[in-house]
Write a structure and sequence with these properties.
Elements lengths: L13 E3 L5 E3 L9 H8 L27 E2 L35 E8 L9 E8 L7 E4 L13 E5 L4 E5 L1 H10 L5 E5 L1 H4 L5 H9 L1 H7 L3 E3 L14 E4 L23 H5 L8 H7 L4 E5 L2 E5 L1 H4 L2 H8 L19 H10 L10 H7 L5 H6 L8 H15 L33 H10 L27 E2 L6 E2 L18 E3 L5 E2 L1 E2 L10 E2 L7
Parallel strand pairs: 3-16, 5-7, 6-9, 6-10, 10-12, 11-13, 14-19, 15-18
Antiparallel strand pairs: 1-2, 4-5, 4-9, 7-8, 12-13, 16-17
Amino acid sequence: MTRWHDASCQVPSVVVESDHTPKCQNCGRSCPSVAELMSKQASKTSVLELPPDEPPGQMNLWWPKCVPYERNVDEPPQQKSSPTQQPPSPSSHSSPIYGEALKSDEFRLACLSAVPNKDAPIHVTLEVYNDDDHPEYECASYTWGGEDGDSTLCCPIYVGSYWDVLLQTKNCSSLLRFMTPWRGIRLVWVDALCINQESLVERAVQVAKMKSLYQECSRVIVYLGEDMVTDSECFPKPQSLDSLGQMHPLFPQHHPLHELHLGPTEILSQRYFSRLWVIQELIVSQQAMIRIGDVDFRANAGVMARPSSNNKWSSSPAPWIQLLAHGSIPVTGVTDIVNVLRLTAQSRSTDPRDRLFGVISLLSDSTIRLHLAPNYTLSYQQFCVGFFAYLFLVGGEHWFLWHAGVVADLRSKTEISMPSWIPNCRLDTSWQSVMTIASAVNRPQKIPALGQEKAFRPSEPFALYRDQACKIRIRRIPMHDHLRDQSRSVDDTVDAATGALLINATHVLSLRDGLITRKTHGPL
């Protein structure tokens, strides 16, 4: 962020010179070049930094709170405070561009005004509104890096009467130019502009309310990049999204897409649809508009419910698109949340914790939303152990063990610190593999309650690894029906310090070659 005026300039009067450089007639200063602005920005990093994993034996597990963690009596959980639980202090995050920090019930809108020509600099004013008192507005849905993934901050966006400079990505700049009206003004919510990205507190509060922001807007503008929109003086043709594939958008003769047939598969294979956060943005929206060539494809719940749409979207690269404008995802239990994660497993996120946190607000079951409430103070280690402990101990799910160290030697060097009953799923590809096992066809049945006749039986022999940190309480299960309930007197838990799974084990299989002890897998 840069204010380029003289410090004594109190009443700026900015004009745009012939080379598109803003200049203040009051103080005589001109805006620095993009190269100068980028050099000042070079010291700032946009790389996500997750809280570091805890040292071995000091995991301090506490999330989710409904999971039974076992700890010493004199060892209370050291729960970290989440930024979303602390309202921002107005005086602590004041900036030249954004002014005072937003209150918890406020949000900003960017006001775009008409410009004389398409080459004019992009200028916006930021306006603050209350959650319950605001004008009609639109929300933008896009990817910061665009289809080529270029997240370099290199394009100036000018803000307010001082024409302060915010450097944005090429795709964000292209989006704002696309949304600039040819007449009048347009009020839009764009995350890169409307949230002070340098205030961690404000970011946490505003990201937590993104669902309501997209629910309340008049429509969501989906921007697939400048290659997907045409530069034409004619107005776009409106069509419903279910006509995609039958209605062929037109591109200029020398455009790379001029002779290509763009159907649902080609469009939904765009990088945009692999971004996890767009799932929330589109599912909770009332209406979405996608510009492709010279056509505005529009969609709402009615369009997506048409019989002609069902088969088209369910087998597409982004099957979740069939839930566009549905408001939420119906969920009645843990099994269903697994299906939701499987549905969105192909989506990518910079923060691996967002694979869950990015969709949890969409679930209609308030109990599950409360149990798995997002908390970005969690390390990836705490998040991963907590999530799978919830599935296993609360939901009775065990299918993920097929991708864990207790079943096969899948532990990588980078995952040694993770308990071996937790799948290796830090990477997007490994997460997809784990969730593929969770499919309705391949998923094994749940582990039966202790004392039931049917036990877990794999279809073929597999290796079982047990290291020194493993703790298993083995109890002999009485065979008489009236005694079976007594065998459940000790609850299954997870050790809060080591992440070790403490279970009541029954005889479920025979070990043909005996146990193999290994020390490289970490605690079970």
